[in-house]
């Protein structure tokens, strides 16, 4: 691990040059440094280009036991296959929320087994979202010799042996260089420098804002031929392959076997740290054969899986015996209890044919109703012709007769179409009842089209008939409101005067009585 600290000085120099381009105090010095940043390639870029041109790309193989991705990410018991989560991590169907946006939260998720391949590549898709302009604290992608399930370093253990890629969103040292991405290595003896955001221990870093992006942020971390490379997709576009260079560390020695993990933490400020996917690939050098999958499983794990399989098999046999005891009538035919693929397909075919049969019956009933209504229209039209044939003047009678003849012909044509449609429906119904074939759906569609055409013809005919009746109605026969009968008189004049006289006498008598009562009452005062 000691050889991993060789590129520290070179990496820090490159970082200081990059920061000088951004926050240099002296204008001339900043200009010269920026010119150097543009002219000089990143550390290791030339060697990578030469190596890429001379050597072939490594063989990539997906490792599902060290990966997770939605949907259906979580099992029924709330666990993630091949992974273990601790702290405040909340797995769901589409993602794992490492920490919610609450103060002082810690969480992590780690692989259950160690990786057995030397070189690897991980692609992590995540979101860091919060309400404020500044968030905290961040998340870390780990590859360590042991599981750092809980601890003070962004929710993971300190003094790890391996590497951590820190996505630090809070500026602890006050240098205004956050959010930033920092690569920190450890040999199991160093304590993480929280006060300086790990800048004193950083092997490489870059400044990237990964909070509140329109699309998920993607990080591609590659460890191949003792070189660690970090590529970032900032989440500004939906293009998944829109990566840009962030950092690189050469001559880095990592443990040959280790655990992959991702952790996050919040402080006084809080963000939601959601990981959508963690995909791991094994990288094999050209010309070398990948290890056999069976050889990757340790003997202890094989024995454990075999014991679990035998235990499940025994439970299944017990349940079969209990089922046979509870259902003696089904003994001897245990396989017939379940539906086979062919039976299911046959059942679906019969159900589809039955639905088509019912739809055609419903259409047939509607056609019968239309035919009856059409016959009533024809009868009403014939009666109207008979009644008004003699009362129409000569020239007007000739024009009206022509219009009536046109309507009658149209009605006959509609009747003929309805009869043909009804016959066609009957043939289709018999065909569906006798023979099963997928072409019935087309016939049903054509039947529906004919039915809509007939409805349009009927509306036109009805409108023409109403227009004809209104046109042929004489002006003197227009309906009028009925005259109201004379309103009967309830009180005669004599009775009225008698009633008024009686009321007057009663009123005068009441006034006189009231005056006498008041005069008698005054005598006592």
TrEMBL record:
Domain of life: Eukaryota
Annotated CDD domains: lectin_ERGIC-53_ERGL (cd06902)
Keyword Hydrolase in annotation: no
GO process terms (BP): endoplasmic reticulum to Golgi vesicle-mediated transport
Transmembrane segments: 496-513
InterPro entries tied to this protein: ConA-like_dom_sf, Intracellular_Lectin-GPT, Lectin_leg
GO annotation, cellular component aspect: COPII-coated ER to Golgi transport vesicle; endoplasmic reticulum membrane; endoplasmic reticulum-Golgi intermediate compartment membrane; Golgi membrane
Membrane topology, as annotated: Single-pass type I membrane protein
Chief site of localization: endoplasmic reticulum
Gene Ontology molecular function: any one: D-mannose binding
Family matches, as Gene3D superfamilies: 2.60.120.200
Keywords attached to this entry: Disulfide bond, Lectin, Membrane, Signal, Transmembrane, Transmembrane helix
Pfam families in alphabetical order: Lectin_leg-like
Subcellular location(s) per record: Endoplasmic reticulum-Golgi intermediate compartment membrane
Positions of the L-type lectin-like domain: 60-283
Keyword Nucleus tagged: no
Protein name: Lectin, mannose binding 1
């Amino acid at each position: 691990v000691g050889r991993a600290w060789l590129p520290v000085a070179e990496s820090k120099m490159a970082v200081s040059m990059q920061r000088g381009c951004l926050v240099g105090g002296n204008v001339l010095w900043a200009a010269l440094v920026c010119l150097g940043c543009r002219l000089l390639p990143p550390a290791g870029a030339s060697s990578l280009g030469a190596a890429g041109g001379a050597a072939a790309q490594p063989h990539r193989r997906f490792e599902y036991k060290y990966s997770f991705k939605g949907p259906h990410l979580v099992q029924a018991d709330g666990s993630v296959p091949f992974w273990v989560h601790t702290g405040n991590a909340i797995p769901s169907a589409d993602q794992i929320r490492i920490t919610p946006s609450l103060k002082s939260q810690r969480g992590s998720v780690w692989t259950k087994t160690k990786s057995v391949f030397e070189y690897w590549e991980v692609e992590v898709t995540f979101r860091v979202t919060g309400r404020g302009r500044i968030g905290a604290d961040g998340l870390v992608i780990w590859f360590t010799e042991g599981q750092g399930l809980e601890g003070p370093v962004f929710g993971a253990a300190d003094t790890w042996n391996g590497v951590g890629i820190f996505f630090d969103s809070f500026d602890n040292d006050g240098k205004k260089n956050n959010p930033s991405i920092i690569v920190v290595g450890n040999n199991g003896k160093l304590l993480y420098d929280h006060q300086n955001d790990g800048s004193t221990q950083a092997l490489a870093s870059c400044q990237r804002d990964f909070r509140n992006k329109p699309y998920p942020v993607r990080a591609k971390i590659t460890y191949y031929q003792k070189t660690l490379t970090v590529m970032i997709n900032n989440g500004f576009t939906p293009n998944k392959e829109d990566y840009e260079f962030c950092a690189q560390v050469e001559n880095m020695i990592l443990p040959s076997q280790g655990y992959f993990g991702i952790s996050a933490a919040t402080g006084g400020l809080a963000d939601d740290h959601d990981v959508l996917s963690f995909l791991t690939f094994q990288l094999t050098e050209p010309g070398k054969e990948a290890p056999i999958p069976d050889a990757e499983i340790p003997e202890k794990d094989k024995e454990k899986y075999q014991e679990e399989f035998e235990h499940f098999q025994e439970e299944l046999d017990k349940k079969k015996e209990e089922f046979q005891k509870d259902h003696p009538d089904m003994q001897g035919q245990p396989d017939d209890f379940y539906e086979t693929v062919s039976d299911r397909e046959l059942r679906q075919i019969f159900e589809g044919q039955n639905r088509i049969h019912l739809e055609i019956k419903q259409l047939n009933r509607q056609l019968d109703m239309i035919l009856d209504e059409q016959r009533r229209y024809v009868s009403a039209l014939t009666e109207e012709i008979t009644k008004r044939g003699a009362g129409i003047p000569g020239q007007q009678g000739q024009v009206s007769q022509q219009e009536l003849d046109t309507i009658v012909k149209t009605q006959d044509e509609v009747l003929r179409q309805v009869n043909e449609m009804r016959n066609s429906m009957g043939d289709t119904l018999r065909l569906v009842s006798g023979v099963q074939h997928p072409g019935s759906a087309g016939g049903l569609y054509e039947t529906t089209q004919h039915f809509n055409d007939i409805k349009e013809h009927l509306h036109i005919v009805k409108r023409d008939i109403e227009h004809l009746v209104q046109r042929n109605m004489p002006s003197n026969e227009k309906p009028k409101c009925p005259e109201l009968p004379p309103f009967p008189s309830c009180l005669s004049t004599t009775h009225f005067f008698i009633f008024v006289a009686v009321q007057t006498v009663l009123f005068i008598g009441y006034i006189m009585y009231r005056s006498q009562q008041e005069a008698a009452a005054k005598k006592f005062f």
